[in-house]
Amino acid sequence: MEKPINIFVEGIADEKFIQDYVSHLLNIELSKNDIIKSEGWTNINSKKGKGELIINKMISNSDNGGLNIIIFDSDSDYEKRREEILKWGVDNSVEFQLFLFPNNSLPGALEDLLEKIINENNKPIFEYWDGFEECIQSKTINGRSQPLTIPAKKTKIYGYLETLLGKSQSEKEKIKERERNYKEKTHWNLDSEFLNPLRDFLIANIK
What we know:
alpha/beta, Rossmann fold, 2 domains, four-stranded parallel sheet, 9 helices
């Protein structure tokens, strides 16, 4: 990299994915100093604590000729989240490039992106999972007034990896967000067309 780049993400899962994808795409090994975990939009939008630290880090990096990149989840409303973050940048006089998971146009999160880039051979796992969710939605339990809750998308990704990895403790460790290997081709396809928006964004800003 010709200039210092700070990439601000939400958490550990995002940090590991971006590290692996940039390594795969650009043959650049990002260090933990290059990627800053913000713990999410709510935290950086705070006037104190983490939010203030993020603002100061962005300003310092810009003053040193560096580039700031924010890669967050768009959550339930892509346009709203984009507008919120861009306004936050103006209000705090910080400059950055922005990308929102899953593909910089749709609502969602990192987990939605991950579901789109699994190895094609493993699609039946998610088909079975979808059947499980449909079954949960159709069932009631005596004495329970509320419908059953569908497990979070994070659980779906955990379940996907758990079905593919062994039963030993060392294999179980590979399921954890910080230990995942997104360059493992039997699990993930980092050349998926769904990643094209992120690919183009990273090439334009990092390379």
